Amino acid sequence: MGQVARLRANVAEQVRSLRRPVVDIAADGFLQPLFLQRYIAIGCLAFGAAVFFDLLGTAIPWAILGVGFGANALAHVHAKRTGQAPTWMHLTDMAGVLVFPALFERTTVPAVLVMMAVVSLAAAASGLGPAVVTWTFGFLGLVAIDAARPIAEFEQLIASYGVTGLMIAITVGKLAAVEGRVRQRLNTVVDNLDAILWVRDPADDRFTFVNQRATTMLGWSEEEWLAPGFWRAHLHPDDLDATTDAVARAVALGIDHELGYRFQAADGRWVHLHDRVTVSVDGAGNPVALRGMSIDVTDRVQIDTALTEIRGALGPVTILVNAAGKDSFRRFTDIGFDEWRRIIDINLHG
Prior knowledge:
Number of strands: 5
Strand content: 5-15%
Distance between the termini: 69 Å
Low-confidence stretches: none
Oligomer: single chain
Mean pLDDT: 81
Number of helices: 13
Shape: elongated
Largest sheet: 5 strands, antiparallel
Helix content: 55-70%
Strand order of the largest sheet: 2-1-5-4-3
Number of domains: 3
Order of helices and strands: HHHHHHHEEHHHHEEEHH
């Protein structure tokens, strides 16, 4: 039974590795640049079709814009929700590229080069499985175009695309699987630490990274942590000026520092945090990032406060003892102990 369970676990891991990308587009700051570049590329493609292929008076440039922007927007929403680029996005890219050699034979060679780039993007953003599916779709598309209208030097083109594209898919896909496993282990270690690990931009105090502990410890979502002004907005009003001034001085000097302050949790309670911060600077000595660890020291602060109160309460007793002298205090305690012995004897022996 144990062997069957291990076999199932291995199979499940291999299946997951097929969908493991080189870059985590949701967590690595890759999501917005990826889709912004795609919007720009679609616009350039429509412009190129209108200008270089004399299609300005046709519906093709508008179709490229409409279909391209629409599909890209849907893929963008899907990626934001799931953290993964959908496989159909890469298939749509490949279909859009195949349109050009199907309509204009002179674009076949550059189209094949772009098709290889599409396969590479699929492997990097979605993993080996989607990359192989995308490569296969492109291969069959070229075969179908040649069957409908023979392509010059088709054997060389299909061989170049087939071998190179498959090598790209496998190489980048395998790299993605290995890198993904390493990243997963690192994330497990980072997220299991009993501390918030974070990176903050010193220019605007905006967090650019927080680990999972930030959510479990204080209740705020990752999106809330990364929002502009989040840190300042949830500092205790009585700690705001002193804390921000201390950080500003340390950043200006480019020195590592520690500080404590109260921070508001999502449920409204105030948590005492102790930060250990490293200031990262560029070659010119300008601060570029703050990398820190925040530890919840609320219990320790409460204990220290209670001890302070106890010391305050015992202060008058200490003064009284000192004033009475050691001999008087010893007689007082001896009387007390004798009385306790008498009570115990009565309870035990009647």
